[in-house]
Amino acid sequence: MPAARESLLDAAYSALARRPWSAIRMVDVAAVAGVSRQTLYNEFGSKEGLARALVRREADAYLAGVERALALPGGAPERLAAVAEWTASAARGNALVRAMLTGCWSERLPAPTLSAVPSSSAVPAQRRADGPLPSPADLVAAVRDRAVAVLTGPGAFRADTAELARSCELGVRLALSCVAAPPAEGRIAELIRDALYRRQPVG
Fold first, then answer.
1. How many Å apart are CA 13 and CA 51, to the nearest integer?
2. Could you report the per-residue pLDDT of 31-64, keeping only the tens digit for each?
3. Cα–Cα–Cα angle for 88, 93, 98, nearest 5°?
4. I need a labelling partner for 68 at 20 to 30 A (CA). Which of 42, 118, 146, 200 fits?
């Protein structure tokens, strides 16, 4: 029941904005979502399962935002600047995304193990959540690879793939530095463009 699952994840995410994960009770999450506690356990299996599903959903949403940024018009530096701005914005606005990107999990957050856990769930989405969760390095690689795929796609930009991959990774890592030490308002895109234009042309 996808609608119930999303409602439960929304309820857990909202609860996390108000109190630490350790203080969030499954019965309260179910009540806010308007479903039974049994439905919650059927979907996620346990509180750990709920945490894994929440982290997986937020990682997927972050990567979907990366793809939207890459779809914007412009040359490669402009698109990578848009990815950097999205990365910094997503990390500022979402503590789970910030933790996934930096590897710094505060005591307020769930901290599921990144390796896969045994799963007996009949719910395909939960089996996926019980698989490996992305580390910061995994997310950097995923963004880099998506950027390379878009920027070298049919009718797109032509460049040396290895050089483009290095430029894409540089853009992501610069964005992460802006998460840790935010620059002045509006400076992220400028920093990314300056760094990439000083390298070999990327598009």
1. 10
2. 999 999 999 999 999 999 999 999 999 999 999 9
3. 60
4. 200
Q: What are phi and psi of 51, to 5 degrees?
A: -60, -45
Task: Give the DSSP letter of residue 107.
Answer: T
Q: Is 198 exposed, middle or buried (0-12, 13-18, 19+ CB in 10 A)?
A: exposed
Backbone angles phi, psi at 133, to 5 degrees: -95, 150
CB-based contacts of 16: which residues, under 8 Å, 6+ apart? Answer: 24, 54, 95, 96, 108, 109, 110
Sequence-ordered alpha helix ranges (H) in the chain? 2-18, 26-33, 37-44, 47-70, 76-93, 95-102, 124-129, 136-151, 161-180, 187-198
Sign of CA dihedral 91, 144, 129, 105: negative
- C-alpha–C-alpha distance, residues 82 and 57, integer Å: 22
Reported pTM? 0.90
Q: Which two tokens stand for residue 33?
A: 């979502």
d(CA 78, CA 73): 8
